[in-house]
Automatic annotation (TrEMBL):
<dbReference type="Pfam" id="PF00486">
    <property type="entry name" value="Trans_reg_C"/>
</dbReference>
<feature type="DNA-binding region" description="OmpR/PhoB-type">
    <location>
        <begin position="124"/>
        <end position="220"/>
    </location>
</feature>
<dbReference type="GO" id="GO:0000156">
    <property type="term" value="F:phosphorelay response regulator activity"/>
</dbReference>
<dbReference type="InterPro" id="IPR011006">
    <property type="entry name" value="CheY-like_superfamily"/>
</dbReference>
<dbReference type="GO" id="GO:0006355">
    <property type="term" value="P:regulation of DNA-templated transcription"/>
</dbReference>
<dbReference type="GO" id="GO:0000976">
    <property type="term" value="F:transcription cis-regulatory region binding"/>
</dbReference>
<keyword id="KW-0805">Transcription regulation</keyword>
<dbReference type="InterPro" id="IPR036388">
    <property type="entry name" value="WH-like_DNA-bd_sf"/>
</dbReference>
<dbReference type="GO" id="GO:0032993">
    <property type="term" value="C:protein-DNA complex"/>
</dbReference>
<dbReference type="InterPro" id="IPR001867">
    <property type="entry name" value="OmpR/PhoB-type_DNA-bd"/>
</dbReference>
<keyword id="KW-0238">DNA-binding</keyword>
<keyword id="KW-0597">Phosphoprotein</keyword>
<feature type="domain" description="OmpR/PhoB-type">
    <location>
        <begin position="124"/>
        <end position="220"/>
    </location>
</feature>
<keyword id="KW-0804">Transcription</keyword>
<dbReference type="GO" id="GO:0005829">
    <property type="term" value="C:cytosol"/>
</dbReference>
<dbReference type="Pfam" id="PF00072">
    <property type="entry name" value="Response_reg"/>
</dbReference>
<dbReference type="InterPro" id="IPR039420">
    <property type="entry name" value="WalR-like"/>
</dbReference>
Length: 221
């Protein structure tokens, strides 16, 4: 999962980036509403965590512009304004969920996963494809019930593909998810990682297929 975090409180933003990425959620963080609006038009995200009190452009306006563009990105409002009127107003404006500060990290993670599952029409939280399944608690893949030995980068690529199993992900989309914190990484790095994963999955009931012009798809054999 890759989210956009729009939060101007730097201590909270720094902590959330580290904590969520440790939990396997890629985070792009911006601290200004105008930057959030640009990022939403430019980048590929699975969900938006939006603070209402942003400088430059407030969260209400960011959300309004998002919905005016008919972008149906799951959006969770994260704010200290915990009133019934604020909750109702945000939900009526197009937000999908609302979490008041202070909050528990585990609840934020659970709400994000639930939002993304609903957006994709998935009825259960299990990330799986054929005999391959991701154990969220242990942060590792199981293949036919046995742990699959992967490097951190291989795991990140496979997790991105598993989140979208049956749907193609382009090299650039994978690059954005796996190397979001690095500069000057070339698309060839994705090709190398996919090649390694194909060797590990060969003959195991699941494969990575290349769809010309679209990208890579994880599918059961």
């Amino acid at each position: 999962m890759r989210i956009l975090l729009a939060e101007d409180e730097h201590s909270l933003g720094t902590w959330l980036c580290r904590a969520l990425e440790h939990a396997g959620i890629q985070v792009e963080w911006v601290d200004d509403g105008r930057l959030a609006d640009r990022a939403l038009q430019r980048r590929d995200h699975d969900a938006l965590v939006l603070d209402l009190g942003l400088p430059g452009m407030d969260g209400h306006t960011v959300l309004q512009k998002l919905r005016e563009r008919d972008q149906r990105l799951p959006t969770l409002i994260l704010t200290a304004r915990d009133s019934l009127a604020e909750r109702v107003g945000s939900l009526n404006a197009g937000a999908d969920d609302f979490l008041a500060k202070p909050f528990a990290l585990a609840e934020l993670e659970a709400r994000l996963h639930a939002l993304v599952r609903r957006a994709r029409g998935v009825e259960h939280p299990r990330i799986a494809c054929g005999p391959l399944a991701y154990d969220v608690a242990r942060k590792q893949f199981l293949l036919s019930g046995e742990p699959l030995a992967l490097s951190p980068r291989e795991l990140s690529v496979l997790r991105a593909l598993a989140h979208h199993s049956g749907q193609p992900l382009s090299k650039q989309q994978i690059l954005d998810r796996v190397f979001s914190d690095e500069q000057d990484v070339q698309l060839e790095a994705v090709e190398v990682l996919v090649h390694r994963l194909r060797k590990r999955l060969d003959g195991k009931g699941v494969r990575i297929v290349t769809m010309r012009g679209l990208g890579y798809v994880l599918e059961a054999e």
